[in-house]
Amino acid sequence: MNWKLIWKSLYDSEMRRKILIVLGIIVVFRILAHIPIPLADSQTLRPLPLAIIQSIGIIYIVKQQAGSLAGLGDITANSSLTQWILMVCALTGGSMILMWLGELITEQNIGNGISLLITVGIVSTLPQTVAGLVSGVFNTSEGKWQLFGNELPINFASFKLFLILATVTIAAIVIVVKLNEAARKLTVHYAKRVQGNRTYGGVTTILPVKLIGAGVVPIIFAVAFLSVPSFIGQIMTSSSSLRMQEIGAQLVAWFQTPTADTFVANSWESYIYPITYFLLVFVFTFFYTSITFNAKDIAENLQKQGGFIENVRSGLQTEKYLS
Q1: How many domains does the chain have?
Q2: Cα gap 281→218, rounded to integer Å
Q3: Which end of the chain is least crowded, N or C, by CB within 10 Å?
Q4: Residue 192, Cα to own-chain centre: how many angstroms?
Q5: Inside any domain, residue 32
Q6: Which domain holds residue 155?
Q7: In angstroms, rounded to a whole number, what is the distance separating the alpha carbons of residues 323 and 317?
């Protein structure tokens, strides 16, 4: 192979262009080679029907609120069937792409991909929220802060609210991280086994049991369940029946995400959402943990491998101990 001739050909701009085109085609080919055949992976396609239903619901809610959402009225008003199909396909396709991106992030072992994407979506609203709080602090239309006889260009009420929110936010983050990372480390001993001329076992390992094994999944489930009554209420408010409109308005009032103004009204209805939210998170935490952490399976696997938890007999005693 004449390497000098190959190296010399790279100085030709036309040859470089052709090589780049070939490399680009090869890259595209390898990307397409990793795209699964449609309907081949049923596990990946399971969320697809739910994504379609949720897309229809989101579009319907946006259409109902088009008057209060700037720029969306022209999109959803008098939409034809073709436009509805286009919007549903766009939202569903976007959901599947986000699932794929979440799986790619999870494969890097940095964290749960979907949780990170949700976190990024939440954090993206922080600059606007902080800017609103800061502008409120320096809004002196209601008076300035008098401190030791000096007049500061600060709204004391807004400044106090800002400090409280900042303190509560930091404390909540610290507590949540501590609780999420908290785990009890159980010492597991493996008995020695002799097979032929080789000895197996005789080692000690650690079995970490997390305090909160469910993570953020119960919260996601609870929010999804709570969105159903509100969505049904939005549909019922557009009914021709006055009774259906009243029921729909009541469902929206009960299960719509509460705001500060909702609690200022001091009505018992404002507490339905947070109480139901708390109960659902509580129930889903136990439900999801029972699925992901099966004490019976762990006890059986330890017994089959000749392992036992320190000071606990293998088998039924281990299962009861882990439960």
Answers
A1: 3
A2: 5
A3: N
A4: 44
A5: no
A6: 125-181
A7: 10
Q: List pLDDT tens digits, range 206-265.
A: 888 888 887 778 888 888 888 888 878 877 877 778 888 888 888 887 887 766 556 556
For residues 108 and 133, membership in a common domain is answered with no
Q: Could you report how far apart the first and last alpha carbons of the chain are, in Å? A: 69
Examine the fold and report which residue of 181, 205, 229 is the final residue of a domain before the chain moves on. Answer: 181
Examine the fold and report which residue of 88, 112, 136 is the final residue of a domain before the chain moves on: 112
Q: What does the pLDDT look like over 95-120, one tens digit per residue?
A: 888 888 888 777 777 667 777 787 78
Cα gap 5→10, rounded to integer Å = 9
Q: 300, 183 in Cβ contact below 8 A?
A: no
What is the tens place of the pLDDT at every residue in 55-73? Answer: 777 766 666 555 545 555 5
Which residues are CB-contacts of 92 (< 8 A; sequence separation ≥ 6)? 48, 51, 52, 55
The answer to whether residue 251 sits within a structural domain is: yes
207 - beta bridge partners?
A: 186
Among all chains, which residue has been given the structure tokens 């109480």? 275
Kindly report the pTM of this predicted structure: 0.59
Handedness of CA 307, 309, 311, 313 (dihedral sign): negative
SS3 state of residue 150 = strand
> 129 and 107 share a domain?
no
Check whether residue 106 and residue 167 sit in a common domain.
no
